[in-house]
């Protein structure tokens, strides 16, 4: 059986799991939404001398956006919240301890069909989405993480 058939291509986007190196697969890592997985190749324009009809686009570097995770607002006892508090509220003179964050897209049996590991990740933004008395919605916190590089493992 091919890998494509085994993973029931195309995979649904609603069945996923997020793991932090420090907390593994705890309830603290339950998220409503994951975004920001991707890469972009920056290029540099170079005009060729004597030839005015076109410009060469040469590859420069690969850049990645931030990994964005959304969930209901967690209690202060959450390990992830404690990590964010340490980074954002105790000043820039403390050492930020990065960790690996793994995002797994699961198949219908709950096994990882696709997996991305974000290496040396650390929080760069922590926002609480707006409150609205006219809507019956869960209060959401949005966490953004910068990272050194990403590995697609499956």
CATH superfamily, called what? Hcp1-like
Query: What fold name stands as the CATH topology?
Result: Pnp Oxidase, Chain A
Inertia-based shape: globular
Count of individual helical segments: 2
Largest sheet: 7 strands, antiparallel
Fraction of residues in helices?
A: under 10%
What does this protein look like?
The structure is a single chain. With 154 residues, the protein is mainly β. The protein has a single domain (3-38, 65-152), classed as Pnp Oxidase, Chain A, CATH 2.30.110. Helix content is 10%, strand content 44%. The strands form 2 sheets. Strands 1, 2, 5, 6, 7, 8 and 9 form a 7-stranded antiparallel sheet that branches. A hairpin with a 5-residue loop joins strand 6 and strand 7. The two termini are 16 Å apart. 11% of the residues are buried.
How is the topology of this model organized?
Elements: H1 3-6, E1 16-20, E2 33-35, E3 40-47, E4 55-63, E5 67-72, H2 79-89, E6 99-106, E7 112-128, E8 140-146, E9 149-152
Antiparallel strand pairs: 1-6, 2-5, 3-4, 5-8, 6-7, 7-8, 7-9
GO molecular function: structural molecule activity
InterPro entries: CHP02241 (IPR011747), Phage_T4_Gp19 (IPR010667)
Organism: Rheinheimera lutimaris
């Amino acid at each position: 059986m091919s890998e494509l058939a085994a993973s029931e291509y195309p995979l649904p986007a609603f069945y996923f799991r997020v793991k932090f190196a420090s907390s593994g697969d705890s309830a603290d890592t339950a998220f409503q939404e994951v975004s920001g997985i991707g890469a972009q190749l920056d290029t540099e324009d170079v005009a060729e001398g004597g030839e005015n009809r076109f410009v060469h686009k040469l590859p420069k570097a690969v850049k990645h956006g931030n990994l964005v995770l959304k969930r209901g607002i967690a209690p202060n006892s959450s390990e992830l919240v404690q990590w964010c508090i340490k980074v954002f509220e105790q000043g820039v003179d403390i050492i930020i301890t990065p960790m690996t964050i793994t995002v797994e897209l699961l198949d219908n049996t709950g096994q990882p069909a696709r997996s991305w590991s974000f290496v040396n990740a650390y929080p760069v933004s922590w926002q609480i989405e707006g409150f609205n008395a006219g809507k019956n919605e869960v209060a959401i916190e949005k966490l953004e993480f910068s990272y050194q590089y990403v590995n697609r493992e499956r």
